[in-house]
Request: fold
Amino acid sequence: MGSLSISHRASLPRVQAASAQWIAAALALTAAAWLAALAGLLAIADRVHDDVPVLLAVKLPLLQSHPELIFAGESRTVYQVDPILAAQLIGKPRGSAVNIAYDAGEPLALEAAMHRETDRFRKAHVVVSLVPFLFNEGVRSAAVYPLDVMARLGVAEQMSAFLPLRVGTPIRFIREAFNARLAADQRVADLAPLPAGLGLMIIDRTEPDDRWPSEIGSHGHYADWNLSGPKARLEIGALCDMVALTRKLTVVVPPWAPRYDRARDPAWREKDDQYAALVIDAGRRCGFDVLNIQSVPGLEQGNYADEMHVNASGVPIYTRYLVSRLKR
Amino acid sequence: MLFSSYTFLFQFLPATLLAFAAARRHSPRAGILVLVGASLIFYGAWRPVYLLLLIGSVAVNFGLGLRMEDPLRRRYIGTLGVALNLALLCYFKYTNFLFDSLNTLTGAPLPFFNIVLPLGISFFTFQQIAYLVDVMRGAKVERDIVSYTLFVSFFPHLIAGPLVHHAEMIPQFKRGRTGRSAVLAARGLAIFAAGLFKKVVIADNLAQFVSPVFAHLDAGGGVTTQWAWLATLAYSLQIYFDFSGYSDMAIGLALLFGIRLPVNFRSPYQARSIVEFWRRWHITLSRFLRDYLYIPLGGNRLGTQRRYINLMVTMLLGGLWHGAGWNYLIWGGLHGVYLGINHLWRERRGGDKPIATAGRVAKVVSWTITFFAVVIAWVFFRARTMAGAWQMLGSLFGFEAGSSAYASPGILRLMDLPVLVGEGRLLLIGGCAVALALVIALCLPNVTQLFGYREYRRAPDKVGLLRWRPNAAWALLSALAVAISLFGMWQRLEFLYFQF
Reply:
């Protein structure tokens, strides 16, 4: 770096060369400084991280009604299970069933909530929906990589696993860690207003035809299929731990839209069978029920908003079917 | 596309630099063509349909310029061109303001138009008006459409300035030396890093003490005197670091291509008079208003009374240039009054005595008066409603405060990472942040001093003790500035001057 200094009497070519060197050095130092800062921020994020994310914390006030049936998990519960209808179907008053699922919801977060609200979960039947990307290590995008799994990796592993192409994932982890800590410090889980519809949200639009994936085998959720990473190990471990924290635990594998045919898509069938087997095997070992729902009678293509979520018309059909399976 | 966005820094800029370098090896002209293409892509990335407006504006003005070569038609066509440009600006910027004002005055049920203000229209329109006026005055007509298009649309200055003059830009495109200098590029990179830091780390972090408070006041709420001062001072520094940071980035980016842009800020908060403030703040706009409005109105040549009238008209229109609203008009008017008082004071004292000869106490007093006059005027500039502005003024001086204290959630956002600290601590931290930013604004050298930056065909400014050199220490400092800024860029806060 000493050669970067330019004397006033240096010749023009030498000055030009030193300037070019300076640019290269500045860029290299920027990369090094950025990596060091990222490592520092990840270390801080690991310390401030709270396993209950904001999206789950804002739904926990629903537990104040001491529900008997708690629907949790990911988006296919958020947008598909109507807890008010579910309560009617089991002959209980409003508030006996709630929906605390959130987008890309992971079992580790739910387990953390159970440890915090022990009494309310211990007396309830908890129904958790799952999605393949929660277990498939090949899915590393920032939007859906489980944050609680991320928190259990060391800083070095966080950086080596996601840099350079998946840099958004550790950055999202840092941001969400601070948001989760803020939610915990503000006691959002106790003080937030009750969510509308007891937690159900409706998708009120249907994707145009050209936005639907042509097949599921090549869907992003099954990309670079790998069930042997930390995701599968930690999330299955969380499901097993939940058994002791609930009155009953049922794990649901919801269906894809009826336009997709498993029989004609061997790639999908093979991966999906492995994923279902992983969950069913865990259920057998740990003592929870597994509902692998591949189709719902009466639920048609027109009831779907996209390849995996029903629209408003599909909510009662799916809810009725799910509750009927739970009653059995 | 924001300069402080990942898309710009990691996709657009590297691609443009590589394409420019490759084209430049072929010929300087090819390099210029690449810059024109990149600039149009840069503008079109916002709303492709408005690219047509920019291209149309460039084509029409260039065509009018060519027709002005005929001396007999020069004045007529030039006047028509200026009128067309003003009409375009008025339509996009002032239609709803005019209708709304007429509606308030007359009660007539006039419609509201859903008009989207094209990015940078105030800048590229003014630059072309200056070109037409200069041609009317006898300047050379530009016959090269490529150079003309790049003069108007060069992406570093296209959206929010500096307002460039054709005579300082077009000759640079024709020198054939564009982009050869690693010396300029190194300096450009360092200036860009400084600008990025000013915008992302200083201005964007100050925004948290400003936006919620003004939003609360605009919605009819009240704030305590402490919060009012914190928000107003924070905004005064936010707008400086935001806009001067943008200008620095623009200067740095242009240097990467070997092109020199004019300096826009020279430590304005160091000014000890309003006249001096306007020689240091948004210099290129002041230059435009002086050359194309104040002097044509008669400047100070038509007597003392006319001088004050001309000053007031210039500043009122300068206020309106920033935005269509009574608050901008009042901001401009206030500065018109300030300038008038400043000139009157100077006349009473017997002319322009250099401030350097004044005593220390006089310097402190004049700085304090100037600074707080500017700060108070910013209240009107920042508030979205007149009621909000008056409420803020009331709170600043303790007239309206206390009745309904501002209930802050007490969350500090450091590079947008939230931390719950409580309202008391947040006020304290905000106060320290404002104090630190003020020290930086007052004590650290500006771009021209620090980087020995020389504008096109101008002598370099005096440099201070602290001066950039292409050595290891400055490489590390620039690297840290960029690396820290990259973590702040996830906020995606727009530059304040994008709205103008």
Q: What stands out?
A: Strands of chain A lie at 69-72, 97-99, 125-129, 248-253, 289-292. Chain A has 13 helices and five strands.
